[in-house]
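re the bet — no i am not wrong, look at it urself. input seq straight from the record:
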Amino acid sequence: MSKEERNQKILELRLRNERKNIVKKLNQISPNLSLDSFLGLEQTKEIKELVYQYIDDNSSQQEKLSKGTVVTIDKLMSVKPVFDNFLNETAYLLFDKDRDIGAITTKLNDIYLNIESILDFTEFSKDFSDLIVVGRQFCFGLCIERQEYNNIFVYWTK
C-alpha cells in the first residue's frame, strides 16, 4: 500500500468514525439514522452554495429575526404549516461540520419534532452556525443565517 493510499484510507476511516459518533448522538432524534444517512462532501458543498446563492438572489424574501433560541423556535413553528406536505420527505440538515462529514439526511418531521435538540446539535443555539434544512431538488427549504446583530430567515416551497 502506497503512502497516498494509506492516507486516503485513514481519511475514510476518520470520516466513518465521525459519522458513527453523530449517528449515536442523534439516535434519539432520528432513530433511522445510519452511516448511509450522510451526503457526500462534494454534494454537501454544492447544496450549501445553492442555499446561500438562493438567499442572495431572493433578498426581498428575507426576514430579520432577533437572536435567541425562543424567537427561532417560535418562527420555525409559525411557518410549519407551509411545510405540512413535506413533513415525510427527505431533508438535508447542514451544520457546522458538514464540509468535513457531509450533510445529514433525515425526514423533515424528525427535525420539527426535535427542533431544540437540532438547534443544540448544529450549535445554532450557541450562535456558532446557521440553520439550513433543504429538501431534495430544492423543493423546500429554510435557512436562518447568523449575523452579528440579528439573524436572517428565509424559507421556500416549490
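see?? The mean pLDDT is 92. told u. also Residues 3-26 form the longest helix (24 residues). so pay up
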